[in-house]
TrEMBL record:
PANTHER family: UPF0703 PROTEIN YCGQ
Key word Transmembrane present: yes
Protein name: TIGR03943 family protein
Residues passing through the membrane, by range: 33-55, 95-114
Organism: Micromonospora costi
């Protein structure tokens, strides 16, 4: 792979990243707040590739005669020319062409968001070693809040900041410790590689007959019921479900 081919691969890679950020595809990989950085990185890659192509394709400087500084050193000039020719004849290993594979994957493949399989491989993200804040719930009935927000209030605030209010949560179905379906959602610190699941058990009108990874919206109230996550032995809070309905997967599947 010569420099021209490398530049073409850089353009494809930068274009693939830019295309992903112009749609919702980038949300499969990173948090929404990183979008400006992805756009900047893709533009830098494209600019660097264009400059490389310009350098490689610009008209070669030609001279009618030997340079005055090298006219009296024909042996050295010949040696430098031979070395230059040898350098241009050198080729990088063919394995470098494998760099096209991730570019092709980014352009042609839309990966699914992490779901029940990933949630069952990791312990719940809520641990007693971290500190949490409990701002007032949004207005309205039911109060629309995140799965993480409700779970933290239910587990460490003992539901005091929830009170008797109804809450509306959205997540996907995954098997719980006792085999019953629970509600879950993946949270990101930076990107999908560091994702962790928030798990929430359900009592009352539990959604049944649904396949794993089915997204549902539940409305319910706080309950002090608890369970233990067998993976990291942390507590899993519950919600008493009053009603639920199946919904489409959200544009941003992570919290």
């Amino acid at each position: 792979m010569n420099r021209r081919a490398q530049a073409c691969v850089m353009i494809l890679f930068g274009g693939a990243i830019l295309r992903a950020t112009m749609t919702d595809l980038y949300l499969r990989y990173v948090k929404e707040g990183l979008r400006p950085f992805l756009i900047a990185a893709s533009l830098v890659l494209i600019a660097a590739a264009v400059m490389t192509l310009w350098y490689e394709l610009r008209p070669a400087f030609t001279s009618n005669g030997p340079d005055a500084t090298t006219a009296d050193r024909p042996d050295e000039t010949a040696a430098e020319t031979a070395a230059s020719d040898h350098g241009h004849a050198h080729h990088e290993p063919r394995v470098a062409w494998l760099l096209i594979l991730p570019v092709a994957g980014l352009l042609m493949v839309v990966p699914p968001a992490l779901g029940s399989y990933a949630a069952n491989q990791a312990g719940t993200a809520l641990t007693s070693t971290e500190e949490y804040e409990y701002p007032p719930l949004p207005t309205g009935d039911p109060a629309k809040t995140s799965l993480f927000g409700y779970a933290a209030r239910a587990l460490f605030d003992k539901g005091e900041s929830i009170g008797h209010r109804r809450v509306q949560l959205t997540g996907f179905i995954t098997p719980g410790p006792d085999g019953q379906p629970i509600l879950a959602r993946m949270i990101l610190s930076c990107c999908a590689a560091d994702s962790r699941p928030v798990k929430l058990g359900m009592t009352g009108d539990i959604p049944t007959g649904l396949e794993n990874d089915t997204w549902v919206q539940v409305v319910g109230r706080y309950t002090d019921h608890r369970a233990r996550d067998p993976i990291n032995d942390e507590e899993i809070p519950y919600i008493e479900v009053e009603s639920w309905r199946e919904v489409a997967a959200p544009t941003d599947p992570y919290e």
